[in-house]
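Quick question, first post here. What does this chain look like in 3D?
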Amino acid sequence: MSGGFLDKVLNFMGFSEEEEEEYVEKEPAKKVRGKANLVALPGMSMLKMMVFEPRSFDEVQSIADSLKSGSPVVVNLERIDGELGRRIIDFLMGTTYALGGHLHKINPQIYLFAPQNVLIEGEMREFRDKTFFNPFK
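> Answer (accepted):
Ran it through. Tokens below.
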């Protein structure tokens, strides 16, 4: 403690030299950005959407099985006749209803069937007001 006591006494009596304080501005710290790691969350599984273009009524069971497994299904009926298309839609509407799912008409011959665990938002306004039997609404 050399000079500590004497400096305090002189400072108390007003005889000490005042030291000017220097202010040093600190530069802001640079942010270090690393690469974002993509990590799969446990318990989260990929949702797989299935697309079908049936040619016969025999294919409707595999479409229904996809719905039962929890996958949303898009069904394109553009290449089959109206009566067969109606039978397929009736069967899949029953399956979807039994599973507590949802049906959306994308266009007059393309339909989206979704099981209960899939939420579909929005609607196709062009087809909203056209006549279509939909027991889910």
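Residues 131-137 have pLDDT under 50 and may be disordered.
The chain is about 30% helix and 15% strand.
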